[in-house]
């Protein structure tokens, strides 16, 4: 069993920075991957970033590449999403997920079996 809890969301000015955390509890396997997804009001959910838990391989959506950094601390069972140069269009509920996606499906929500409840990020203009 795995549980994920996001934290670190809040209100930030455009151009600012914010770091989200995803704490994982329960027994886990070192090989599972972590992904971040976001959903704005009235919009479909979209992939943000993913990282292999053991390999460290990362993937980013084009919209956040160069601005966001995904990382992990396996000793703390915690994943992170560092966000900088934030834009109003980054406003959304951000959710972390854990699972074992194939390399070609890291951006596919159905590839992840465990999800957190989400944390709100609001970027003001």
List keywords for this structure.
globular; seven-stranded mixed β-sheet; 125 residues; four-stranded antiparallel β-sheet; mainly beta; single chain
Distance between the termini: 41 Å
Number of strands: 11
Note the beta-strand portion: over 45%
Rg is 13 Å
Number of helices, counting only DSSP H or I runs of 4 residues or more: 0
Helix content: under 10%
Main pleated sheet: 7 strands, mixed
Order of helices and strands: EEEEEEEEEEE
Q: Judging from the principal axes of the Cα atoms, what is the shape?
A: globular
Uncertain ranges: none
Mean pLDDT: 92
Structural class: mainly beta
> What is the subunit arrangement here?
single chain
Characterise this structure.
This protein has 125 residues and is mainly beta. It has strands at residues 3-7, 10-13, 18-25, 33-39, 46-52, 58-60, 68-73, 78-83, 92-99, 112-115, 119-124. The strands form 2 sheets. Strands 2, 4, 5, 6, 9, 10 and 11 form a 7-stranded mixed sheet that branches. A 4-stranded antiparallel sheet has the order 1-3-8-7, with no helix packed on it. 32% of the residues are buried.
